[in-house]
């Protein structure tokens, strides 16, 4: 399957019950009164961007499960009206334990959702409190069990590591508790301390050694449990890799709807206004809510393709243009044993998987010490 030919549709729901202490996503707490207006704005934006026939759907956030059951129905109706020819091969919906009910799960199934992504982060109640989450480990298990009573979808669970106060043992206990639930897919994210978050203000700094130990042990434990590590942060039982996210990593095209959403179409990446009311006002006035637009070309584009391809644990086949443009950088990374060649493919080594951010620096501007391409 050539994922470059598939087009993804991403719909952003920026509402949350609280703002978690680490989160820098376009997500607003306490804005529930704006949901009805926002759904109207999404419908208007979808009409403006209905020129494609997307193959996958991903409703992410923020917290999509903050919508009420009727609002979830309205959301899927507006998507179906704007993209009547789409037969989504995969339809993902992100849900948080504190706002997911049996009624909402039932609506999601009847709207054709095939993949439920549950944000657990950790199953340690003290840590959940310490990162600003509203739910407990028991809530996550309850919602998971309820979701399992419905047929026809797979379940993915998000966990984080490197949280303040989290020990390797506590992380592995959460991982084991999640594995006991047997989800088809798991995403593991190392804490990134982003500017403008409470953690950044508090000066939180994840410990490199502990993070590496958690990630390394998790890879081994997940492999042993039959999950394939297919992308730096993602693990799946065979056949349950996320099709939508694979479009991103294969440098494919996607349409983004909603406040702060990104699109990549015809070589142009655009990002929408990330403030709620200005976003709504723009689309209500019949305008595309574009805040930024960039045409990626030449070395920048090739570097991005290489970086995305290397996120996949199987790597990618670089074209002659990437080999030429990044001849020096690729050689340097091979020498440092961060990437290796396997047939025509380039992939991260095991060490490279742990130091991926260092490896990726070679492919992003500014290309400071680059000698630019094959020596004359
Ligand atoms: C965009 S969030 C939305 C999902 C949902 N609202 C939730 O919190 O569970 C998707 C995932 O990104 C991860 N994430 C968010 N901020 C992060 C950060 N600063 N560092 C690492 N992972 C982060 C969390 O695991 C989260 O589940
Ligand atoms: S992590 Fe999820 S629930 Fe928490 S603020 Fe961010 S988007 Fe909202």
Account of the 3D structure:
The protein has 376 residues and is an alpha/beta fold. Residues 369-376 have low confidence and may be disordered. The protein is built from 15 helices and 16 strands. α1 crosses α10 (276-284). β7, α6 and β8 form a beta-alpha-beta unit. The chain is globular, with a radius of gyration of 21 Å. Iron/sulfur cluster is lined by residues 16, 19-20, 23, 25, 27, 61-63, 96, 119.
Keywords for this structure?
single chain; 376 residues; alpha/beta; TIM Barrel; 2 domains; 9-stranded mixed beta sheet; 3-stranded antiparallel beta sheet; 15 helices; 16 strands; 39% helix; 21% strand; globular; disordered C terminus; binds S-adenosylmethionine; binds iron/sulfur cluster
């Amino acid at each position: 399957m050539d994922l470059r030919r598939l087009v993804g549709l991403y719909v952003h729901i920026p509402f949350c019950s609280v703002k978690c202490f680490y989160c820098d996503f376009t997500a607003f707490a306490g804005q529930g009164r704006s949901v009805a207006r926002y759904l109207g704005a999404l419908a208007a934006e979808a009409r403006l961007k209905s020129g494609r026939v997307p193959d996958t759907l991903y409703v992410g956030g923020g917290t999509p499960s903050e919508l009420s059951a009727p609002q979830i129905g309205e959301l899927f109706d507006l998507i179906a009206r704007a993209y009547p020819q789409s037969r989504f091969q995969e339809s993902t919906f992100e849900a948080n334990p504190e706002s997911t009910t049996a009624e909402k799960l039932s609506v999601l199934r009847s709207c054709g959702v095939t993949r439920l992504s549950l944000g657990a982060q950790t199953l340690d109640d003290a840590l959940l409190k310490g990162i600003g989450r509203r739910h407990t480990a028991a809530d996550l298990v309850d919602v998971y069990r309820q979701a399992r009573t419905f047929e026809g979808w797979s379940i993915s669970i998000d966990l984080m590591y490197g949280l303040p106060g989290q020990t390797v043992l506590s992380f592995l206990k959460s991982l084991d508790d999640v594995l006991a639930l047997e989800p088809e897919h798991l995403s593991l994210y190392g804490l990134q301390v982003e500017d403008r978050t409470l953690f950044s203000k508090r000066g939180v700094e994840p410990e490199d050694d502990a993070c590496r130990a958690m990630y390394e042990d998790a890879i081994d434990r997940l492999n042993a449990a039959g999950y394939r590590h297919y992308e730096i942060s993602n693990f799946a039982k065979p056949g349950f890799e996320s099709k939508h996210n694979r479009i991103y990593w294969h440098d494919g095209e996607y349409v983004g709807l909603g406040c702060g959403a990104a699109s990549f179409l015809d070589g142009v990446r655009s990002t929408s206004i990330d403030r709620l009311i200005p976003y709504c006002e723009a689309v209500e006035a019949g305008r595309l809510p574009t805040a930024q637009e960039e045409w990626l070309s030449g070395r920048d584009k090739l570097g991005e393709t290489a970086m995305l391809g290397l996120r996949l644990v199987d790597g990618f086949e670089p074209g002659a243009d990437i080999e030429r443009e990044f001849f020096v950088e690729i050689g340097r990374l091979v020498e440092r044993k961060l990437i290796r060649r396997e047939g025509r493919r380039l992939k991260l080594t095991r060490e490279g998987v742990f130091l991926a951010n260092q490896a990726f620096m070679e492919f992003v501007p500014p290309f400071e010490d680059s000698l630019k391409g094959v020596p004359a």
